[in-house]
Amino acid sequence: MSNPLFRKKSIDTIQKEYDKGQEDGQPMNLKKVLTVRDLTFMGVAAVIGAGIFSTIGKAAFEGGPGVIFLFLITAVTCGFTALCYAEFASRVPVSGSAYTYSYVTFGELIAWVIGWALILEYAIGNIVVAISWSAYFNNLLIGMHIHLPDWLTIGYQTAKIKYDSALAAGMPVNDLIYTNAPSLGPLKFIINLPAFLIVVLITLLAYIGISESKKSANFMVGLKLVLLAFIVVFGFYLIAADGSTDNWSPFLPNGMDGVLRGVSSVFFAYIGFDAISTTAEECKNPKRDMPKGMLYSLLICTVIYILVALVITGLVNYKEFEGVADPLAYVFNKINMPKVGLIIAVSAVAASTSVLLVFQIGQPRIWMSMSRDGLLPKRFGKVSKRYKTPAFATLITGLLVGIPTLFIDDLLMTDLTSIGTLFAFVLVCSGVLVLPKIKKAKDQFTLPYINARFIAPVLVAVFIYFFRARLLSAMEHLRTESYEEILFILFILVAIIAAVLSFIKRYSLIPVLGTLCCLYLMITIPAKSWLVFFGWMAVGLLLYFAYGYKHSRLIQKSPAEAK
Fold first, then answer.
1. CA angle 491-517-119, nearest 5°?
2. Which Gene3D superfamilies does the entry link to (predicted)?
3. Is 43 buried (19+), middle (13-18) or exposed (0-12) by CB count in 10 A?
4. Residues 180 and 265 in one domain
């Protein structure tokens, strides 16, 4: 039973299928139109979204101006992962992202699990972004004196939570949306219409074609970069004109512990750069361009995040960001410049729209790759003859994202995006360690080799030394500790094993560090999100054993094609 579960696809087989471009009379290859610039813009489009307009405030409150160090730390962590993605993308230049990479290195069962996790990541990520887009868009309409009914601008679940919370606290509920919404029998009619409509429009754009999506994404990225540049330049001008940098002192008010408390918020701001790896099959030269696009987009986004963090903490004291959901708008309203808030609203709408587009492009290509391998019905893998896009999978993605945006509460789902992403990152980074060595081809990216034999054990030892008090406390009170501390102990064990294996097998340092950094971030995610994640995985495994295991194309492959 174990061998069939972990049967692998060889890189040679994938390359032959990619080059052949035909299967069962259906076109497999998509339209090759993406360049380095397009991939870079697509990466920026995916990364700079809700994070810079919302979670950056929470991170600034925890770490003060020194939160810029956390952006650097997170960027380095994501950089390790991006390099590993780039290695895979240059050697396996087809759609599928971490799903396809895991199929090559770990086998079919793990590939299915990671593909199912990516579907969760992209779907829930877009649900959250669509709801955020709706809020900013509604504020933009209000600024233009256009007022939609409140019960058409919020999800039913969000309105009900606020209503129940007010009742529990003994507060008046007469003015709440849930109270005043129209009724359909026993239920209140409350839907987030703008969120649903933007998902519909983005899905249609993704359906029509990658060229049109590319042009739209590039335009929106250009727009938000210009607007963010204005905010940064204008913000530094105001700081310089005031002649005071008191808000930057102390720079680390809560020390590095305070900075690190914002890990979850800052990591959420970086989610998305991996989505461009799903478009490898639509790149003109994926072996050369995909690595550059990932790394360039990470670099641009990091610089923007650091500059924006310095601006908002320079204009307003970091203590004022507690509970602030829209820090950029809050800052300029605080200094009596509400007109700048209109620019911020436009930036937020453009940023969120571009994120929606990239994720809505990425998810159907995961479905398509899984279908090609026989793990999902063939219809998910069909490419439109007219538009050269995975048509059916794109429409299913639209439904999977659009319907929940009508009624669901985004705060309950944000952490699920992070856990699915980190899970994919861990498998990609560790997967590089088991790839066979090859001779570098022309224009092909190869991960730089740095021998981890001595460096990894030293780094793990240093980490354990600095966290020795926490480790000893967790071990002494193991029976009564929370799940976070138990996960911390497990992380230490995994880190020690990684250090030992690095010494014995002389692993490459970058994927080792990428794996350990992502694992550490995973243990910071709340227990409720882990339970939902495991529930989603259980549903996925049921589907795999009910359909994918029996219909896998590797069953029909010869030993030379599947190992």
1. 95
2. Amino acid/polyamine transporter I
3. buried
4. no
Cα-Cα end-to-end distance for the chain: 15
179 and 290 in a single domain? The answer is no
**Structural domain of residue 243, as residue ranges?**
2-9+34-147+194-437
DSSP labels for 209-247? -HHHHHHHHHHHHHHHHHHHHHHHHHHHHHHHHHT--GG
Q: What is the 3-state secondary structure (H, E, C) of 62-99?
A: HHHHHHHHHHHHHHHHHHHHHHHHHHHHHHCCCCCCHH
What confidence score (pLDDT) does residue 558 get?
A: 47
Residue 58: is its pLDDT beyond 90? no
Q: Which segment, 23-27, 152-156, 444-448, is predicted with the most confidence on average?
A: 152-156
Same domain membership, residue 272 and residue 177 = no
What does the block give as tokens for 525? 């995610």
Beta-ladder partners of 446: none
Q: What is the 3-state secondary structure (H, E, C) of 18-37?
A: HHHCEECCEECCCCCCECHH
Q: How many CA atoms lie within 13 A of 266 on its CB side?
A: 31
Q: Say how far residue 456 (Cα) sits from the centre of its chain.
A: 27
Tokens describing residue 447: 């991960």
**CATH code assigned at 358:** 1.20.1740.10
- The Cα 447–Cα 87 span in angstroms is 6
Query: Whole-model pTM above 0.85?
Result: no
For residues 136 and 60, state if they share a domain: yes
Q: Does residue 299 lie within any of the structural domains?
A: yes
Number of domains in the chain: 2
211 and 231 fall within a common domain: yes
| Cα–Cα distance, 390 to 404 (Å, whole number) | 22
510 within domain boundaries: no
Residue 543 belongs to some domain of the structure: no
Is 552 inside any structural domain?
A: no
In this structure, is the dihedral angle defined by the CA atoms of residues 310, 316, 319 and 324, taken in order, positive or negative? negative
Gyration radius of the chain over CA positions: 24
Question: Average pLDDT, stretch 450-454?
Answer: 92
What mean pLDDT value characterizes the chain? 80
> Which residue, chain included where needed, has tokens 């990684």?
498
